[in-house]
Amino acid sequence: MQGLFADFPAYNAKPDIELGKQEPSIEVAVDIIRTYLEVARKNEAGIVADIDTEFLHDYRVSLRRVRSVLSLFKGVFSPDQTSALKREFSDLMASTGRVRDLDVYLLEKDFYFKLIPPNLHPGAEAMFAQFKKERNRELAVLSRRLRSAAYGRQMKQLLALFADTKRLETGPNAERKAYDYARSLIWKRYRKVCKLARGITPKTPDEAVHELRIDCKKLRYLMEFFAPLFDKSDFKTLIKPLKKMQDNLGLFNDYSVQQEALLNFVSTQSDARNRTSAPLAMAAGGLIAVLDQRQKAERDHVITNFQHFDSPEIQNLFRALFRQKED
Question: How many CA atoms lie within 13 A of 323 on its CB side?
Answer without folding.
Answer: 10
